Amino acid sequence: MDAVPTLRPGPGTLHGWFDRDLPPALTVDPGATVRFTTLDSGWFVEPDTGGDVADRRRDPRYTPGDGHALTGPVEVRGARAGQVLEVGIGAVVPAAWGTGFAGLADTAWNARVGGLRPTVHRWRIDAAAGTARNQHGHTVAVSPFLGIIGMPPAEPGRHSTIPPRRHGGNLDCRALVAGSTLYLPIPVDGALLSVGDAHAAQGDGEVSGAAIECGAERADLTLDVRDDLFGRPLATPVASTPAGWVCLGIGDDLDEAAAEAMDAMLDLIGALHGASRSDAMALAGVVVDLRVTQVANQVFGVHAVLPPGAVR
């Protein structure tokens, strides 16, 4: 059996933007598994020691203006724009340290730009125990996932890593843990997938502007290509997760994001259960949960969840 190819952050693999013209760091056949290692979102290469976060040492390839530290891109041989990228999420193992920012109402994550210092929680992550503990003695359960799994927009040029998009990116959906399969509309030939922004733990909404930000010691992703999802074209991210089927909506406000998530969920219920649109909406009113994915990244995210076995 061939060894699983591994991509580590470094020359030719580490970048802070999406760009369809960025050369692939690796090309694989559909169905291949790739092991990624990532820096934390801020490119930090040392744990926080209690000083100003901006003074921490970053990877030397960081330049001002870079977004999240991403590893990739991976080209999937034969993938074409308009198809669906299937991302099977295997083990996601956080690095041994990370930082999270729990801001007060008037001192949010980005308030330091205006001269205000955030409230900093410094976390020690014990992956084996499944916990993280901060300097105040608070212990939380970890449920690691990659905040960014995405592909570049079809438009040329560099694109920010901050806003999530319909073909993935900074989704920050905490349901996308190991054992999930994420389906993304492919915007460019080859797919050109990059990942990063690992989170050891995060609440729905990412309300303070950050989770427990950490690197990923490893994240195993199996990449495949489909023509569609259940015989239908795909317009927004959909995932099968341990929590059930998840449809993600993105919008300029929560109403728009919720409408997009529900539109995708009605399509999914129709495909899974042979239901008409009106019957799917009636079923959704009984069994589907709407959850705020994140409110921290220029646009808003809502995901609709259909729990396992909710409709039989």
TrEMBL record:
Residues 47-69 are annotated as: Disordered. One of its GO terms (molecular function) is hydrolase activity, acting on carbon-nitrogen (but not peptide) bonds, in linear amides. Pfam families: FmdA_AmdA. It comes from the Bacteria. InterPro entries: FmdA_AmdA. This is Acetamidase/formamidase. It comes from Geodermatophilus saharensis.
